[in-house]
Amino acid sequence: MTSLRVSLLLLAWFSAILQIVFGQSVEMFSNIGAVLLGLFLLIILPRLKWDSYLILIMLGVMGWFLLNGLPTQELLFSGGRFILIFVALIATMTLSKATASTMPSVRLTQRNLALLTPEASSAGLQIAGHVFGGIINTGSFAVLSAALPRNSDDHRRKLAAEAALRGMVTSAVWSPFFVAFAVGEGFVGTTYAWIAIAIGLVTSIIFTLICCYVFSPQFSWNTIRASLACLTPISMRVIIVLTTVLGFALVFNLTALSAVVISMPILVCVQFLRHPGNIRRIITSTHDGLALISDDLIIISGAMFIGYIAINTDGLEQMGLIGEHSIYPGWVALISTPVVMMLASVVGIHPVISSTVMLALFSYGGASVHPALLMHSHLIGWGAGTMSSVASLSVITCARLYRVKSTSLALGHNMIVAFMFALLGGGILSLLNMLIYHP
Questions:
Q1: Are 424 and 203 in contact (CB under 8 A)?
Q2: What is the mean pLDDT of residues 400-427?
Q3: pLDDT at site 388
Q4: Most confident by average pLDDT, 2-6, 241-245, 260-264, 374-378
Q5: Is the distance from CB of 256 to CB of 176 less than 8 angstroms?
Q6: What is the SS3 assignment for the chain?
Q7: How far apart are CA 384 and CA 423, in angstroms?
Q8: Which bin fits 216, alpha (ψ -120 to 50), beta or left (φ > 0)?
Q9: pLDDT tens across 318-346, in order?
Q10: Ramachandran category for residue 403: left, alpha or beta (phi over 0 → left; psi -120 to 50 → alpha)
């Protein structure tokens, strides 16, 4: 059964790549890919965790109200084609994680982090988590936890886990490798999405410096320099990856999501040529990873289908949530988006649900807000939400690898950090919106 699931997912992944490259001329293959994806989702449905069922029920209720009934066949196929690219992103990142784990530069970075003093380790792990997280997302926890000394006590493990988690999830504000970017891009468009992550580079630097100052007992610029020095072995790899994705997007006029799905497998093939001995290991790790991402895929697929409905039907207008009579002030959109996403996560509502609702309300003229700033507030909310939810895959993965309780990891220091990140981030964006946006 596992081989069947992985095979269906691989075929859906391939059809998404064809769709990116050839567009509407291969709509028949895209429809086949959507059907195969539907079969995959039906097969994995009985294997989901209980919290995934709750999320799907909430998504189903939202879809029912938006459609006021069952979807048409045309909507199902067009929505399926829309979802394919998001599934391809998750599969592509699984391949990227498997490849990164074999790189000598990654192992050298692990050894460097292990040599940091306890005083510098919090800053080092947050910075390293931020850089790794921007490329391989939750795969960064496996890399960073391996660098923690084996004799570390519970207190140091918790501090290290909190730092790694803060770093990884907040890289969503600048990285095109997160599902968050793909979600927002669908609502605001590619140009504004790229502007948003350019702003995110500034946001991430400020946030990281503040956290290093607060959580490092003996903070100094030497601490920052020592932490950055640990990342020297992978710095060129990170630059190559980001430059390649941006280059594909610009040269071939692709969305960031499509550029990631096309360019990352090419970079992996380059690694195959350079280190052919790792091919079997990477393929095996990718296969195993694809077999374990059922919950992620079905949640993302469901949320993206609801988002597609919200964009392509008049359900929100009929509910009176958007329209000429209900244009929200910019500050309401920019503050409520990250804060609602964060608070909803604390009670178990995944950011993919809350962000879909907030973006559907405030995009396309629903609020007096610059689209790039709305996109950035959504990215802040995604980072804050995934930092503070016991149901977050990031929290669960980090807690397991660092051997700490997920409740203490999500509901301790990081919950306060997440709330302040959402509130202050939204407030600053509101001030910026007042200065630059004049509709």
A1: no
A2: 88
A3: 87
A4: 374-378
A5: yes
A6: CHHHHHHHHHHHHHHHHHHHHHHHHHHHHHHHHHHHHHHHHHHHHHHCCHHHHHHHHHHHHHHHHHHCCCCCHHHHHHHHHHHHHHHHHHHHHHHHHHHHCCCHHHHHHHHHHHCCCHHHHHHHHHHHHHHHHHHHCCHHHHHHHCCCCCCCCHHHHHHHHHHHHHHHHHHHHCCCCCHHHHHHHHHHCHHHHHHHHHHHHHHHHHHHHHHHHHHCCCCCHHHHHHHHHHCHHHHHHHHHHHHHHHHHHHHCCCCHHHHHHHHHHHHHHHHHHHCHHHHHHHHHHHHHHHCCCHHHHHHHHHHHHHHHHHHHCCHHHHCCCCCCCCCECHHHHHHHHHHHHHHHHHCCCCHHHHHHHHHHHHCCCCECCCHHHHHHHHHHHHHHHHHCCCCCHHHHHHHHHHCCCHHHHHCCHHHHHHHHHHHHHHHHHHHHHHHHCCC
A7: 10
A8: beta
A9: 655 555 555 789 999 999 999 999 998 88
A10: left
Question: Are the CB atoms for 1 and 42 separated by under 8 Å?
Answer: no
Give residues with Cβ within 8 angstroms of 96, minimum separation 6: 135, 136, 139, 177, 264, 268
Closest CA relative to residue 159, chosen from 115, 205, 231, 214: 214
Structure tokens at 76: 């199902």
Q: Which residue has the tokens 């977050």?
A: 392
As a residue count, the chain comes to 439
What angle is formed at CA 137 by the lines to CA 133 and CA 138, rounded to 5 degrees?
A: 110
The pair of structure tokens assigned to 349 is 């509502």
Q: Which of 121, 152, 156, 127 is nearest to 140 (CA)?
A: 127
Residue with tokens 């051997």: 403
CA distance 15 to 27: 10
**pLDDT tens across 89-139, in order?**
788 888 888 888 788 888 888 788 777 766 567 788 888 889 888 887 877
pTM of the predicted protein model:
0.78
Distance separating alpha carbons of residues 257 and 265, to the nearest angstrom: 13
